[in-house]
Amino acid sequence: MTLLHDIRSAARTLRAHPAFALTAALTLAGAVGANSAVFELVNAVLLSPLPFHDASRLVAVEQTRPGGTTEPISLPDYRDLVENNRSFAQLAAAFQWSANLTGGEAERVQGMKASSSLFAMLARAPLLGRVLAADDERGGGQRVVVLTYGLWRRRFGGDAGILGSSIILNGDAHTIVGVLPADFVMPVRDAELVAPFPVDADPRRAARDAGFLRVVGRLRPDVTRDRAREDLDRIFAALRERYPDTNATHAGARVVEWHQTLVARQRATILLLEAAVVLVLAVACANLANLFLAFGVRREHEFAVRAALGASRWRRIRQLTLEAAFIAAAGCAGALVLHRLVANTLSVLAPADLLSLARRGTGTPRVVAFTAVVSMLVVFVLALLPALRLGRDGLLKAHRSASGDTSRTRGILVCAEVALASALIILAVLLSRSVANLHAVDPGIRVDHLLTIRLSLPRARYKNTQAISRFAEEVRTALLAIPGVSDAAAVNVIPLNGYRATADVWPGDRPAPPHERVDEAQYRMVSPSYARTFGLPVLAGRGFDERDNAAADRVVLVSRTLALRYWTLGDAPGKVLIVNDAGSARPLRVVGVVGDVKHYGLDAEVTPDVYVPVAQVPDSTSIWLANNMYWGVRTTADPKLASEEVRRVVHGVDRDVPTSAIRTMEEALDAALAPQRLNLWLIEAFAALALALASAGVYAVTAFSVALRRREMAIRAALGASRQQNVRTVLRDAARPLIAGLVIGCGVAAAAAPALRSMLFGVDQFALAPYVIVAGTLLIAGLAAALMAARPVHQIAALEALAAE
């Protein structure tokens, strides 16, 4: 009954002080809600283990080059690793593979080919049917395929009777033998189906310089990653000695926990968000501490009376604890609502690869528990100090000295929250400048009025360059007949999509360099009108035209960066460039120099590039263009309006050619900026929340100080001080912790800025302007809040000096 009485008393107290209760609950909800939303992302991406047995022993294996870069492993090197290693219980290989899925509407699907040892190593049961077995790799029988959960639901409607039926991939019938679970993680990102990898029949089984395999292994129980790396380094060293012509650049091995490789690109973004919301929580804690201190001081007289009437110390502490419990419960409920709003925003703004990792985590119970625990912990810890203070006996005299006892503590808390808020806002300004700089970067092409679409040609009918070139000419003719289309061109890789397609190059007037020192250039197969369609400037010489056909001399365009590496811009046309794009080197005559293009993102370095006419591509290389033929369509109006007509025209040339990934180059540019924009939007939102909390903290502390010093101000007025002088006194006292907090915050931001170096583009981390702007803005906001809180000083009359407590 006593407990029920205290619960009712706590509820009545909070109802009697709605401003305190509402402010505390909203402050808690805002800070904890933001933290729980980001925690859900951290939990799903960084904390949730891969859905496999003993996942910590699963590692990704890559080979390193002398410069420290990594690359996939060749098939013969992989077989040597399997046979000679002493560290792995199992090794498995997979590589990216795409196929035309026909029967119904043609579609290009992303998949992978994998050794059966992958599924044996992961030991994960399928959702339906079976996974790949060793017999599937040997060939000679029926072709089989395993579907991912996503493709099974999207293309086949989740039909449980799909097992045993056939689908047509690249013109061949494949029997569906299994469906993988929804959370199954692939070595190849975005793969939607898995086919067997016939190791012994692969045409690259003897090519040690053709690295294309992604290798995953399971370490033996007594082997560490460092020991496994040393073991593989030993094998690679032996291969370099035995095969110096092909393995000279294979410096060693990199062995990393597989989970880390999957989340590597998202780790920096997620940790930045986590740091930001932790700062917001710290600001909120300082604000709540001030609120509880102020509320406690106002009630010292009340609790002194309670003690005098016989209330025990435990009873008084329990009363305050129950009040804190109500606030924590309300804050937790609000935090869960805000968490859902932030999580929904993340689902809209976050890049696709981040969302795909986030969806594999099912951490709702963990997130709810996190929200509840943080809410309770924050409130109870912050309420504990005033509770213990008010719980002491003999506090009848405390009411008279409340201001002196707590003013220093409240000033320190204001200083802390202003410091944290200013540090977060400065970092937000730096990120904002970085994104603005990225927007100003020239991608090297004209992105306006340009539509792009991906085609994938059936391999059975497009086996050589002649067939592919003829198809490209027919498509271009059909596209130019569309009203509003001014030009069109094909290319194997469009700018800004990040795909890697390279060839070794060196100038023809110099000896061939050693294999380990040969230069790489981005390799592009293009139709003659590529430069005009994509708006690539021709800086010297000429671009391609219809003269550059299969019967003409072999020619090449080079980018500005590549031309300046070997010659000058004016001297490059007419020079000979050796390009190894057919398994052997061949000389090509440079006919022109074009501008540099950002292939890997606006913040990436420009690359040396070579462009070869489609009609002159070697047959052995043209297959890559057939698999991924991108078209750029230049229009005079909104390019989106032409998208359906472009699809219709392509299917009119060949109805079995799937069309996919149709979007404008402006959309591609937006996608390239999506990760940076996500960082900026969220950091700006959290910084605004921190600014609001800091301003509210300054207001609350100043208002409370005015209330406690009302008698002092009245005495000052009686002794001749004007109301303006009293206001200046209040503002001066409020400005001290505010200015101290700004100085400390600028120092914290300067210390933290180097950690953001990889996220800042074209921004001087220590430029004075952002620090001055943020400090000035926060100072104005803080003083404005203090001025609003000081308004009651105008109402204090000198007669109040005669009043006694």
Question: What report would you give on this structure?
Answer:
- It is a single chain.
- With 805 residues, the protein is of the alpha+beta class.
- The chain folds into three domains: 349 residues, no CATH class; 182 residues, no CATH class; 201 residues, no CATH class.
- β1 and β2 form a beta hairpin.
- The longest helix has 44 residues.
- The protein is elongated, with a radius of gyration of 34 Å.
- About 1% of the residues have low confidence.
Features:
6-stranded mixed β-barrel, 805 residues, 23 strands, alpha+beta, 51% helix, single chain, elongated, 3 domains
Q: Largest beta sheet, briefly?
A: 6 strands, mixed, barrel
User: Which structural class matches the secondary elements?
Assistant: alpha+beta
Percentage of residues in DSSP E strands? 15-25%
Query: How many helical stretches?
Result: 23
* Quantity of strands, as a count: 23
Count of spatially separate domains:
3
Give the mean pLDDT: 83
Radius of gyration: 34 Å
Distance between the termini: 36 Å
